[in-house]
């Protein structure tokens, strides 16, 4: 299974900043509010699901909106 390189997931390429939340065990995908669904880019989404499969809480954020991504590939708006 090929792994994703950091170069493939560069924020300027995919429109999403991927980061560990320093205050929790959450993994965040932070998107430009002008492109709130850039976390749905297939490369980014695959990476987010893999983080969720590693028992992480994965949250995509854009402005005031947020979505939780689950290990089975489903997602829902997150309060």
Strands in their spatial order, largest beta sheet: 1-2-3-4-5
Distance between the termini: 34 Å
Uncertain stretches = none
Strand tally = 5
- Write down the Rg: 12 Å
The global form is globular
Biggest β-sheet strands, sense, barrel? 5 strands, mixed
The residue fraction in helices comes out at 10-25%
Description:
The model has no long low-confidence stretch (mean pLDDT 91). Strand 2 (26-31), helix 2 (42-53) and strand 3 (57-62) form a beta-alpha-beta unit. A 5-stranded mixed beta sheet has the order 1-2-3-4-5. It is of the alpha+beta class and 79 residues long. It has helices at residues 11-14, 42-53; strands spanning 16-20, 26-31, 57-62, 65-69, 75-77. It has one domain (11-77). The protein contains 2 helices and 5 strands.
Brief summary:
This protein has 79 residues and is of the alpha+beta class. Helices cover 20% and strands 32% of the residues. It has a 5-stranded mixed beta sheet.
Please name the defining characteristics of this protein.
2 helices, 32% strand, alpha+beta, single chain, 79 residues
Spell out the blueprint of helices and strands:
Layout: H1 11-14, E1 16-20, E2 26-31, H2 42-53, E3 57-62, E4 65-69, E5 75-77
Parallel strand pairs: 2-3
Antiparallel strand pairs: 1-2, 3-4, 4-5
